């Protein structure tokens, strides 16, 4: 099932493997890592969240399938929202958010927002 989520709507030749390595956080900080997949033919996708503490210990995970998702950016944004809601419900205040969708990162860093 994990492989299905990873490859959902992704061409094999577009996947790039980047070696990951945990970087220790300052004490009392947590890292929220989110990712999503998108299948254009069905306008659906799935998103996931992993929350780790400053030592790299797993605190929480969550995943869900999403219907009526118009594009990749929306799917990634929904996963980020889910991660922020989850970390907020747990009462964490010092949070690092990590996502791999550059357009979403740029949007979150900007003051512009999105015109609908």
Automatic annotation (TrEMBL):
Pfam families: RVT_3. This is RNase H type-1 domain-containing protein. Gene3D superfamilies: Ribonuclease H-like superfamily/Ribonuclease H. GO terms for molecular function: nucleic acid binding; RNA-DNA hybrid ribonuclease activity. CDD domains: RNase_H_like. SUPFAM superfamilies: Ribonuclease H-like (SSF53098). Residues 33-110 form the RNase H type-1 domain. It comes from Panicum miliaceum. It comes from the Eukaryota.
